[in-house]
Amino acid sequence: MSSNLESAKELLVFLGKSLFSILEAIVFKVIPQPRKNVAGEIVLITGAGSGLGRLLALQFARLGSVLILWDLNQEANEETRQMAQEAGATRVHAYVCDCSRKEEVYRVADQVKKEVGDVSILINNAGIVTGRKFLECPDELMEKSLDVNFKAHLWTYKAFLPAMITNNHGHLVCISSSAGLVGVNGLADYCASKFAAFGFAEAMFVETYAQKQKGIKTTIVCPFFIKTGMFEGCSTKCPTLLPILEPEYAVRKIVDAILQEKLYLYMPKFLYLMMFLKSFLPIKTGMLIGDYLGIFHVMDGFTGQKKKT
Ligand SMILES: NC(=O)c1ccc[n+]([C@@H]2O[C@H](COP(=O)([O-])OP(=O)(O)OC[C@H]3O[C@@H](n4cnc5c(N)ncnc54)[C@H](O)[C@@H]3O)[C@@H](O)[C@H]2O)c1
To answer: Membrane-spanning residues where (predicted)?
Structure first.
């Protein structure tokens, strides 16, 4: 009898808290939460030498953060460092780091901890794409995709999460992709790496939540194509629903999501609907939608990043 009462009480508490969390989310949709202050935060951005990484560095420079820039391209990274200083950053540290190499990540991470301090915002942004059909893609290239786009995230978490836990303060940002939400032909290795990055970041969010590490936040970003050159030559058949995004717009949304401590950011918004439809529509209908939106042909004109990194 008493155990029945206990179960009923537990159910009521669960229902009450769930209802409250839904109401709270609705209120925060109408009245946006205040953005957090990142002045003085130590922000590490991987792949800071170009594209989103560079623009993210410039945004955080304007917000007064201390910047740590990682890239394997020293010249490009140095250029970002100078631009960040011109944008107002007073403390910018650029390091050459090949994120696909575990030992190098650990070595440079140790150097960062000694020379700058504990990273409080980690942005796993470095990425590559092979853009080849699965059977035409050499094994080494596929392995590289997984090393850069996914495994590097394991090593950076290992290096920087412990201090975040000790300080009960930190933010983990994963730049995944719309290709981390839906499989795309011609992008098998890239999709695998981006699904893995998404799954890892989400699992780690749940792990920190379950361990009541409330000061540790996570943001997972899934954009469709962005005009950075990475997907040069790719096209969209439906620019109204699936536009190719401007890098400045994408970065503004990413920084906003970080400052609002949002867990998920999908861009454009149509991706939220796509995920909802994917969860219940018959697979044949899903494929018809994919065909109608031209998804099967988005990679047809792929030439990729022109400059060598
Ligand atoms: N551009 C898009 O359409 C698009 C869409 C969705 C997701 N993304 C993701 O956004 C992120 C940024 O992409 P971008 O468009 O700015 O590309 P980009 O090619 O302009 O920038 C990637 C940066 O990562 C660096 N990099 C590559 N391999 C590295 C390694 N092993 N170690 C360290 N640095 C390395 C490169 O030197 C470069 O500076 C990537 O993770 C990408 O997968 C991009």
So the answer is: none
Cα 304 to ligand 1 centre (Å): 11
Q: How does residue 309 score in pLDDT terms, banded at 50, 70 and 90?
A: very low
Over the stretch 132-176, which tens digit does the pLDDT of each residue have?
999 999 999 999 999 999 999 999 999 999 999 999 999 999 999
Testing ligand 1's pocket by substitution, the residue of 230, 245, 248, 249 carrying the most ligand atoms inside 8 A of its CB is: 230
Q: What is the edge-to-edge ordering of all strands in the sheet holding 216-223?
A: 92-96, 66-71, 42-46, 121-124, 170-175, 216-223, 264-267
**Residues carrying an active site annotation:** 190
The residue written with tokens 């620019």 in the block is: 239
Give which of 272, 262, 166, 155 is closest to 218, Cα–Cα: 262
Choose which CATH entry (3.40.50.720, 3.40.50.1240, 2.40.340.10, 3.40.800.20) describes domain 35-297: 3.40.50.720
Lookup result for tokens 């044949």: 284
Return the SS3 of 294: coil
Give the torsion sign (CA, 79, 84, 90, 92): negative
What is the spatial distance between Cα 117 and Cα 114, in angstroms, rounded to a whole number? Answer: 6
